[in-house]
């Protein structure tokens, strides 16, 4: 069997910065899950090309057509059942073990960082695997959702309220604790990586800006330019499933060559 091709080597400046970093923060978006087969939002084949976000990812849309919105999230959970973390998610879990303080701030709702083994994950936009009743806020089990009669929305068995996914819709505030923890991580980061995000959605997109303003070395891992490309110190162009393993490999060899390897 042929050897896997070596991951592309990242720029040395970024590796040196990481090797000397106490605190590293990463903001991830849908792009890191693209190689797991999960559609992004704004790419040509993305979710928003087929659906209008205001039609499905707002409370107004949910209240006006709850069964349609519930079906859309059930469809996305079904895609997730076939998907698993990719080499990009796994590389971030490796990075976490090699730096003293590591925070993975994700806009994704797919749980793949946790499945890849990353321990310190901040979910800014919630998690599609969790659902709850809009009235009594009781967490809803999978079986409640399965009872989705054709055209009838799933309802809470206790109070009859509508069941919604535990994600942040447009116009909804992000979970306060998550946002405060993410801002603290951005403010204290020596190195901040923006991975697989178009940086189009706020307030998450403000985190790399905060980090850079507070002196972090800011690198962007993406296949394309984004709203913050002009701002970053370094662009690592390519699919995260290839560029992040290359970064983890390079940091690992830098650590093994240095007299006092970083890490916990
Ligand atoms: C709020 C739902 C206030 C969950 C989502 C300031 C300025 C401008 C606008 C606003 C602002 N403040 C608020 C707004 C309004 C709005 C907003 O930002 N609108 C934008 C569109 C203009 N923000 C909000 O409404 C937020 N709420 O601010 O509330 C408030 C305060 C108090 C009280 C009440 C209210 C809520 C934002 C969250 C919305 N929810 N999704 C779900 O169904 O999933 S947004 C959606 O976009 C996802 O959460 C996603 O995470 C997020 C960001 O998208 P990306 O992850 O970046 O994905 P995208 O497809 O855009 O890009 C993919 C990238 O990957 C691309 O760059 C591509 O090149 C790259 N890529 C592809 N393949 C790869 C790759 N990179 C590497 N490797 C690859 N293989």
Describe this structure in words.
This protein is α/β, with parallel strands linked by helices and 264 residues long. Helices cover 37% and strands 17% of the residues. The chain is built from eleven helices and nine strands. It has a six-stranded parallel sheet, sandwiched between helices. Strands 5-4-6 form a three-stranded antiparallel sheet. α1 packs across α11 (240-257), α6 (87-98) runs parallel beside α11 and α9 (176-188) packs parallel to α10. The longest helix has 18 residues, at 240-257. The model has no long low-confidence stretch (mean pLDDT 92). The protein binds ligand BV8. Residues 29-31, 34-35, 40-43, 46, 57, 107-109, 125, 167-173, 196-198, 200-203, 221-224, 226, 239-240 line the site of ligand BV8.
Give the helix/strand layout.
Layout: H1 12-19, E1 23-28, H2 47-50, H3 53-56, H4 59-64, H5 66-81, H6 87-98, E2 101-106, H7 112-115, E3 121-123, E4 126-133, E5 139-140, H8 142-146, E6 163-167, H9 176-188, E7 191-195, H10 206-213, E8 217-222, E9 234-237, H11 240-257
Parallel strand pairs: 1-2, 1-7, 2-3, 7-8, 8-9
Antiparallel strand pairs: 4-5, 4-6
Helix pairs in contact: 1-11, 6-11, 9-10
Bound molecules: ligand BV8.
Ligand BV8 binds next to strand 8.
Spatially, the strands of the biggest sheet line up as 3-2-1-7-8-9
Q: Please state the CA-atom Rg, rounded to the nearest Å.
A: 19 Å
How many DSSP E strands?
9
Shape summary = elongated
Q: What class would the helix/strand composition place it in?
A: alpha/beta
Q: Which percent range fits the helix content?
A: 25-40%
End-to-end distance, in Å? 36 Å
Give helix and strand order, one letter per element, not per position.
Answer: HEHHHHHEHEEEHEHEHEEH
Q: What are the low-pLDDT stretches, counting only 5+ consecutive residues below 50?
A: none
The small molecules bound here are: ligand BV8
- Give the amount of beta strand, in percent: 15-25%
């Amino acid at each position: 069997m042929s050897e896997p091709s070596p991951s592309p080597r990242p720029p040395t400046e970024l590796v040196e910065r990481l090797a000397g970093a106490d605190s590293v923060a990463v903001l991830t978006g849908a792009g890191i899950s693209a190689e797991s087969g999960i559609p992004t939002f704004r790419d040509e084949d993305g979710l928003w090309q087929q659906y209008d976000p205001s039609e499905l990812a707002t409370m107004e849309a949910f209240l006006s057509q709850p069964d349609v919105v519930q079906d859309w999230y059930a469809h996305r959970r079904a895609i997730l059942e076939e998907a698993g973390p990719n080499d990009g998610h796994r590389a971030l879990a490796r990075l976490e073990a090699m730096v003293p303080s590591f925070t993975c701030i994700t806009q994704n709702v797919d749980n793949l960082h946790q499945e890849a083994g990353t321990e310190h994950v901040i979910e800014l936009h919630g998690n599609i695997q969790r659902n709850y009743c809009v009235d009594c806020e009781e967490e809803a089990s999978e079986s409640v959702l399965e009872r989705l009669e054709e055209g009838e929305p799933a309802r809470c068995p206790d109070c009859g309220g509508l069941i919604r996914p535990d994600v942040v819709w447009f116009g909804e505030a992000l979970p306060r604790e998550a946002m405060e923890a993410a801002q603290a991580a951005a403010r204290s980061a020596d190195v901040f990586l923006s991975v697989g995000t178009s940086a189009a959605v706020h307030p998450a997109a403000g985190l790399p800006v905060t980090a850079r303003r507070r002196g972090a070395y800011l690198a962007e891992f993406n296949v394309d330019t984004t709203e913050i490309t002009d701002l970053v110190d370094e662009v690592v162009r390519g699919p995260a499933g290839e560029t992040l393993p290359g970064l983890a490999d390079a940091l690992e060899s830098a650590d093994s060559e240095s007299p006092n390897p970083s890490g916990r």
